[in-house]
Amino acid sequence: MKLYYKAGACSLSPHIALREAGLAFDLEAVDLPTKTTESGGDFLAINPKGYVPALVLDDGTVLTEGAAIVLRIAALAPDKELAPPAGTPGYFKLVEWLVFIATEMHKSCGGLFNPAMPAEGKTMIKGLLTRRLDYVDQALGKGPYLLGDSVSVADFYLFTVASWLPRIGFDLATWPNLAAHSAHIRERPAVQATLAAEKLV
Questions:
Q1: Fewer Cβ within 10 Å of end Cβ, the chain: N or C?
Q2: pTM above the 0.90 mark?
Q3: What is the DSSP letter of 173?
Q4: CA-to-CA distance for 156 and 121, rounded, in angstroms?
C-alpha cells in the first residue's frame, strides 16, 4: 500500500491508523499547490480530487476520503480492534463519529485556514465550531475515547483535527476532556512514530 500525504494535514489520521494497525505501507508526500508528488508524479492522476489523503491498496484500488480510508485500514487488521465489528451498533456509532468529525469539525477548520474568508464568516464559523467542541468535550467525559473504553480510528481523526486548533485561535485548555484525549493519544508509540515520520516533532 501507499499513502499520499501532506505533513500535518488530515492525512495524519490514516497515517496513524496504518501504524497502529501494523500494516506495511509506503509514504509519498504531495505538494498540494502544484499537485506534484515527492517522486515528481502527477497527483491528479492518482486522485483527481486533488487533495490528500489518498491510499493505494495492494490491488491498485485507490481510496480518497479519510473516513473511508481509516475504516478500510481497520478492516485490514481486525485483530487490532480499531473498529467494532461491521454491522454492530458500535460500528455505526464509529461511523457517526467519523462523519461528525469530517463534516462538523474538519470542514469548519478548513474555512478558518482560508485567508480569503471574510472576518464575518470566520466569526460565524468560530461560533459553530465552539459548539461542536463543547459537544465533543462532553462526550469524552463519559470515557477516555470516543467509543468509551476502546480506542478507534475516530480517535486518530479527532486528534488530527484538535492539533490544528491552536493555529486557528482556539485554546485547547478550554475543553479539558478534549485536551486530555489529545495528550493521551499523542503518547501512543504509533502516534509518536507518525509525528516523527512527518517531521512534526
A1: C
A2: yes
A3: G
A4: 28
